[in-house]
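Hi support team,

I submitted a single chain yesterday and got back a structure, but I'm not sure I'm reading the token output correctly. Could someone confirm the output below corresponds to the sequence I sent? I've pasted both exactly as they appear in my results page.

Thanks,
R.
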Amino acid sequence: MFCPQCGQQQVNGIIRFCSRCGFPLDGVIQLLNSGGALPAYRSPDEPVQMSPRRKGVKQGGLLLLSGIVLVPILGMFASFSSGVFLQMLAILAAIICFVGGPLRMFYAAVFEEGAPKPISAFGTPMPMHMPQQFRPQPQGALPPPPVRQPPSWRTRPTTAELANPPSVTENTTRLLDKEDRTDR
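Hi R., thanks for writing in. Yes, this is the structure output for that exact sequence:
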């Protein structure tokens, strides 16, 4: 990444200020993360929209907590009266609150959508990860080698010019050749 003010190349993509001129690079990093789209900011007084998943978990929790208060009260009224209606109402409230509440939370946590992705100024979803070309590349301890060796004032001698030892078969073949010549 290069500083947009002075052009200094930065060591990695996570520094916050230019090492040469001190220019703040936070906005540049956000711009690179979003693929060049300006990030959309919301005002602090704007209400935050709750995701369906969070809303469902909250509904299930409220149902469970209301059962903790409602079922004992209905049970007390049912015990003082002789009517079957209040007893059935207390049983129904217990089933709905203590079974329905956790089921609602489970359904919301597993099957409903999470929070919506942030939207940029151009109406496209912002990527939540840094594109491959802008990710800081791991660097070794040494600088990379030059692409082409600079010309030196003399060439290096080739040390691989040593004579190879003769093979075992060469000597025996020569001996056979000498014997053939003498026999004739």
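A quick pointer for reading it: Residues 1 and 11 are 8 Å apart (CA to CA). Let us know if anything else looks off.

Best,
Support desk
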